[in-house]
Amino acid sequence: MSRLGPEKAIHVAVVGLGGVGKELMKQLIELPYPINIAAISNSRKMLLFTDGTTSFNSSQWATALDAADAPDTNLDVLRDALGALAKRNTNKAVLVDNTSSEVVANAYPKFLDAGIHVVTPNKKAFSGDLSLYKRLIGGSGGSGGTGLPRGVFYNESTVGAGLPIISTLKDLVDTGDKACLFFGQVKKIEGVFSGTLSYIFNEYSKGEEGGPSFSSIVEIAKANGYTEPHPGDDLNGADVARKLTILSRMLPGLLERLPNGHVDVQPTSLVPEALRDANAQEFMQRLPEFDYDIAHKRDEAARRGSVLRYVGVIEVSEGQGKVEAKLEEYPKTHAFATSLQGSDNIIMFHTERYGGRPLLIQGAGAGNAVTAMGVMSDLLKLF
Ligand SMILES: NC(=O)C1=CN([C@@H]2O[C@H](COP(=O)(O)OP(=O)(O)OC[C@H]3O[C@@H](n4cnc5c(N)ncnc54)[C@H](OP(=O)(O)O)[C@@H]3O)[C@@H](O)[C@H]2O)C=CC1
Ligand SMILES: N[C@@H](CC=O)C(=O)O
Ligand code: NA
């Protein structure tokens, strides 16, 4: 770690101080890296410390932000302050976005163009509007008025939380035989991509007929910090669809092989029709009304010697691509039934070089500690 001398300190603005953001603050404060906290913000307030002298202990920052006179969150002000700081002392400045906000995601190009790096577990920018994504990966090459070279982004925690999924796929693609393969060397990626849905079905399949109800397990997944801010975003398959879109866009040549040239996942939804537009609070309150429907599915699967698992698949065959997110039955002897625990993700990369036995990554795929760890590991890539 000698390369991390004080002269290499980086300035970090932490936007989003919920489950993941709080845990990241803890890791930033406790770990021995030369990282200055240049700003903190939630949806309402923002504190700037761009003189670079800030030092917090773990409770002070929350108290400071709660103070009534803290100014409103303003991303333009934040970008200008970080840009000026990076320019003034030639150290790197980073926006860490721990929100699930599209507003913050839409602002990334302006931060990158101003020479500010972006690190985030927020999936929105990489799975939403294709033109935004192209602006992120292509960039304007401009310096956004600061004269600094364009910033770079890291998003490891957007898929599999802290598990090395994005970096592994990048390595597989970058080392593929580009001359003869349209797809890097990756043929198929499949697995369980949702920590929430993994936890729910791992627990639920233990308790056939008489075990805990579906809604009570969802409640625990939320309390454990696995769910999205609105748990309906997990149960309707949107979160898995976003992760599949992020990975699909990293695969050269896949988009051209999909109908209409873009990723359009139609995930199986587990959200009852009546709760489709419910806010998070109403959603959780009313979910127990629908426990019977999913219990019936679970018990039917059990009668066939199977369990339910929510899986995602990205595949190319004969020049055609497909991307799917769906609820499937697996025999109780299948790896998806026997080897998963808690919020585990399991992701298999089928590639030419890995032949008949896929490269497999498994472990906790949701939770504040492992997600913040992925964010922290991205920050360390900037040193
Ligand atoms: N939890 C997990 O296991 C994983 C989470 N992620 C991703 O991490 C991100 C954060 O998740 P989590 O911590 O659980 O979410 P929370 O809902 O707990 O926290 C979100 C935070 O973002 C703030 N926020 C929302 N909108 C804005 C805005 N426009 N400007 C500034 N701040 C804003 C909220 O402020 P306020 O408090 O004022 O509402 C809150 O502090 C999400 O994108 C999620 O998908 C990724 C992988 C795993
Ligand atoms: N809600 C997500 C969190 C991580 O991306 C999940 O359950 O997987
Ligand atoms: Na990851």
TrEMBL record:
Which sites bind NADPH?
99, 123
- Catalyzed chemical reaction(s): L-homoserine + NADP(+) = L-aspartate 4-semialdehyde + NADPH + H(+)
Q: In UniProt terms, what function does this protein have?
A: Catalyzes the conversion of L-aspartate-beta-semialdehyde (L-Asa) to L-homoserine (L-Hse), the third step in the biosynthesis of amino acids that derive from aspartate (the aspartate family of amino acids), including methioinine and threonine, the latter of which is a precursor to isoleucine; production of homoserine leads to a branch-point in the pathway as it can either be O-phosphorylated for processing to threonine, or O-acylated for processing to methionine.
Q: Where does NADP(+) bind?
A: 16-21
Keyword annotations for this protein, in alphabetical order, are: Amino-acid biosynthesis, Methionine biosynthesis, NADP, Oxidoreductase, Threonine biosynthesis
Enzyme Commission no = 1.1.1.3
Q: Which InterPro entries has this protein been placed in?
A: Asp/hSer_DH_NAD-bd, Bifunc_Aspkin/hSer_DH, HDH_cat, HDH_short, NAD(P)-bd_dom_sf
Tell me the protein family, please.
Answer: Belongs to the homoserine dehydrogenase family.
Q: Name one Pfam family in it.
A: NAD_binding_3
Q: Which residues form the active site?
A: 243
In terms of SUPFAM superfamilies, this protein maps to:
Glyceraldehyde-3-phosphate dehydrogenase-like, C-terminal domain (SSF55347), NAD(P)-binding Rossmann-fold domains (SSF51735)
**UniProt pathway annotation:** Amino-acid biosynthesis; L-threonine biosynthesis; L-threonine from L-aspartate: step 3/5; Amino-acid biosynthesis; L-methionine biosynthesis via de novo pathway; L-homoserine from L-aspartate: step 3/3
Q: Which PANTHER family match?
A: HOMOSERINE DEHYDROGENASE, PTHR43070
Query: Which cofactors go with this protein?
Result: a metal cation
Q: Where is the Aspartate/homoserine dehydrogenase NAD-binding domain?
A: 16-137
Keyword Cell membrane attributed = no
Instruction: Return one GO MF term.
Output: homoserine dehydrogenase activity
Q: From what organism does this protein derive?
A: Paxillus rubicundulus Ve08.2h10
Q: Name one GO biological process term.
A: methionine biosynthetic process
Q: Is Amino-acid biosynthesis among this UniProt entry's keywords? A: yes
- Top-level enzyme category: oxidoreductase
Which parts of the sequence bind L-homoserine? 228
Protein name per its UniProtKB record: Homoserine dehydrogenase
Q: Which residues form the Homoserine dehydrogenase catalytic domain?
A: 180-380
